[in-house]
Fold each of these.
Amino acid sequence: MLVRLLYCSRAVDTSPDAIDSILAQARQHNPSSGITGILCYGAGIFLQAIEGGRIPVSELFGTILNDPRHKDVSLLHFEEILERRFGDWSMGQVNISKVNHTTLLKYSETPTLDPYAVSGKVSLALLEDLMATAAICGRAG
């Protein structure tokens, strides 16, 4: 059974090396677990959608909850799905600082990434919009 989980967290270390390390680890681990998704990062905040089997996704989220690189982890949305929306990425990446501010304003009161201030469905819609506008890099290939 496929599921999609959406969460947000704050980065403990916001250096480019720390963020690159998180992405590299995800891209190395996720394919063997059948996990796909995207990670949006900006202003010290992660917004991530992960898709895959119920057990691997749940185990990964448990790992994230205990990962010292994340704080203030918040589950935004969890659902059973018929098909993946982010299946082309072992872990696609969005650098929110390079996204047109009008895209963010469609989903928020301000042109900043703040998934803590909006619903999980709004955050998922933002990620889908970013995917549709090709703002995601790191496509599996």
Note: Residues 2-132 form a domain with the Alpha-Beta Plaits fold (CATH 3.30.70.100).
Amino acid sequence: MERIVQKTLADYLADDSWSRGRIEAELDDQFVFERPDRRTVTLVDILEEPVSEVEVEDGKSVLKYARQEYGDRFAERIDDTEPTVLVSFDSGDIYSAAPSLLRYAPTDKRPDEVSQLAAFGPEERWQRTREFLDVVRGFEIGNVDVTVDTDPIRREVSRYGYPTLWFGRDEAVKMAVGMENQTRPGQKITEEYWNPIKSGYLEKFGPRRTFGDLIETALVFPDEEYEAALEAYESIRNYTEEKLGLRLNERPAPFAYDVEEDVAELREVSEPFDITLGFLPDFDEESYYRLIDILDGHPLQVVTQTGIEDRNGHDEDVVENTAVGLAAKLGVVPFTIEGQLSTQAYLGFNADGGDRGTASAVMLSGRRTKSFIGRKIRTRPTAVV
């Protein structure tokens, strides 16, 4: 199967079999603009002038602007002789860009069911949902049989309020909308500040459950990015130890995923590691799925340098999210819901056309649920069309 995101526009322009006329006639005009915010743009025109000569702002060329605004990681991909292209954003604004930063993302290679959005009426959409549930009615995870109830709790949309969350080991440490903020006495917790307050509770009171064993860790990174990867790891390690009570190796076992010998060694010894932190300069599907393949199902948490840089030097949120994600994969429980819930899997569908929404699958574990923490469970992914 051909990858949806494959070549850059520069690759096509450098290919003698692809003339500019053929590019404009045969290629879909949607591209991913690979800069820190990775936005989808529409190709408008291909100019004759190179990126080193076309000025975009205050006398800066396209190349110089990219180096200044996006950083060397992106600018180093640009050949100063490649032609400048014009792209448009959703707002309609036209922007000059380098073709080597435009990765081809053809919409006509996406599944029809995705591109149709909300073309189905409510009843047909409901029937398709039921058919999908019939497909996944029963399956097996490890040696556990899982059944899916095809009768939903409700047919209409349900909205759930913010639950009461428990932190730390003290039963009195809980937070909920309207309650006094125990991290800052005298203030009430509001919906607006729900997420940052959760972080504050976790940092002040710690997780509901953690453990003190030393965690054997590996660090996987591009060969030339070892120092940057180690710096990111150190920030995450400090957070997990200070805020989550989880001790990672002071020096993780290093492996470069673009060095054949390192990959071979990692495949051989990945079993002794409790978890692996993958470091990518910026997110790309090929590298991400390669890491998953190399580790063959062993726990992996990924962080990107661009994710950290997007915070304009303030990487606290990225470090926290990465550290908590890593800890949760090891069995740490950051918080629990007051009263708990019975074990159910809820699958949410959003199919409201162009409006933004959320599709999510959440597993809520009840009091009588068997614990599978530490047990290796492997599943074979299945595509349902």
Note: The longest strand covers residues 39-50.
Amino acid sequence: MEIDIRNASDIGVAVRAARKAQRLRQDDAAGSIGVSESFLGKVEKGAESVHWGKLFQVLDGLGVRVSVDIPDEAGELFAGEEIKRDARVERAEKRRRAREDADES
């Protein structure tokens, strides 16, 4: 089912519905996803400031996919930005591995 998300509260409703559809208690869902029950509660209540990484961990853990509908004109720019991001991530990973290798020496 596709729904429009306009704010944090809408995400909270979607997360709560996904959890309840799986018949999971909040504490059980949080434990299996790897976040605190408190954090999951904040997400479900639509807290305005939550850690993005943990939010996507919750969404993934409950099988909630997120998509964004951007204007057609932005599509080509988006592809270019993705390539830049991937290159930055790859450079950071190489630096991390080099530091680990140096620490092992």
Note: The two ends are 52 Å apart (CA to CA).
Amino acid sequence: MSVAFRRESDEEHLEPKFELPIPRAPNRVTAAGQRLIATRIAELEAALATAAPDAVDALRRDLRYWQTRRTTAIPTAAPEDGSAGFGTRVTIRLGGRERTIDIVGDDEADPAADRLGYGAPLAQALFGAEVGDQLAFNGRDETIEVLAVAPIDAAEGPSYEAGGAS
């Protein structure tokens, strides 16, 4: 039989389905990041239980992503010395404007809400900084002034403000 007369399956015309990309960097997480992963897994498992057949594949793909993120999570605490780093909330003055930034893991990152992944250039510029430091950024000296540093996850941990700890 000629190939011209064969019936093609519906599957041949569908877009390929790929796994969600896993970031290459270590999967560092804050306590809030661990809760986010657990919540996302629970939501997806609940959605799978009632999902329409055409939505199951996408939900399973998302669930595989989040289960992998849970398995590879590395709980990471803020630096104990009061410097800026992973898991810290840093208040800075940048371009004459005050801004408070949380340095978090990739899955927690939300740049619009000033939650930057630890690999972001601004987050990297802040690593190791202490209150009162003037930092170079974007090729210019003394662009960033560090005003305060505090651990994100600390229920009642110290806050390192300009002028001393509080």
Note: The longest strand covers residues 140-151.
